[in-house]
Structure formats: structure tokens, C-alpha cells
Amino acid sequence: MAALARIGGRHLKSVGVINSSASCFFSQRRGVASKLFVGGLSFCTTEQGLSEAFSKCGQVVEAQIVMDRVSDRSKGFGFVTFASVDEAQKALMEFNGQQLNGRVIFVDYAKAKQSFGGGRYPIARGPPDPVEVAATTTEPSKND
Predict the structure, then answer these.
(1) Which residues contact 12 (CB under 8 A, 6 or more apart)?
(2) DSSP letters along 7-56, please?
(3) Region Disordered: what ranges (predicted)?
């Protein structure tokens, strides 16, 4: 994805759509600063509807609603990425605490993904051995 962003940015510069001093549409510095977390979404909100609502504040690069893998329903939150940090800040101020599709939404800057367990899966340990549990919970009587 990053490679495509760099190629797209170079192409836009080479054809004269943007100059090299202007901030690129596919800026590598965009990162989390222009990506917003949107919580409290209605389950009927679509990615297109989310994008259209937030496009009032600027150019929406991507609107994503997080779906449950099992039920294929919305989890009630998503992310909106803007072309610039200023547009993201404007959307944060305008939409935080406002209603969208009948529900009050909460908007904040997205946080960077954190890998769970250093990128490894957690170890399945299973239930404790009953003998070990009994040995650690019983105290020797003081009358012995």
C-alpha cells in the first residue's frame, strides 16, 4: 500500500497535478494524524454514508467500518482518513458528539496499531491442574 502511495504521488507530481512543494495527496507523513476513529455508529451506517457525511469537512481518502467476522455485522465503529491533518482536525471538532443516523458518534484521533504479544499469538495454557491448585490453597494447620 505504501509503495502504491509513493508511486501515485510521483505520478501526480510528474503530470503537473501537484507541485513538489505542495503536500502530496498520498503523503507518507499522513499516518495516524489524519486518521480518525469514529465510535458509536449505527449498525445501518455504511462506508459510503460515513464517507459522504465526513466529506463536508474535506477530502476523505478512506472510510472503513469494522465488521464482525462471524455475524458480518458492523461492530459500531470505524475509521475515516483525510487527505490532510487540518481537514481531520476540522472533522473532529465538527462531528464529535453529534448525531449520525440517529446515534451520537464520538470522534477522536486514531491510535497506531499495537501488536498483541510482540506479533506472536498468546500461549494457550488451559485450566490449572487440580492437584497443584489444592496444594497451593491448603495451609498446614498450626496445631500440628
Answers:
(1) 18, 24, 25, 26
(2) HHHHHHHHTTSS-TTSPPTT-TT-TTTTEEEEES--TT--HHHHHHHHTT
(3) 120-144
The C-alpha atoms of residue 44 and residue 85 are separated, in whole angstroms, by 28
Lookup: cell for 27: 503523503
Residues 51/38, Cβ–Cβ less than 8 Å? no
Could you tell me the three cell numbers for 142? 498450626
Q: What is the pTM of this model?
A: 0.59
- Lowest-confidence pick of 5-9, 43-47, 114-118, 125-129: 5-9
Question: Cα(82)–Cα(118) distance, rounded to whole angstroms?
Answer: 29
Give yes or no for a contact between 123 and 76, defined as CB atoms under 8 angstroms apart.
no
pLDDT per residue over 128-144, tens digit each?
667 765 666 655 655 55
More confident residue, 23 or 123: 123
Residue whose C-alpha is closest to residue 49's, from 30, 74, 25, 85: 74
Q: Which residues, in sequence order, are CB contacts of 45 under 8 Å at separation 6+?
A: 65, 74, 78, 100, 101
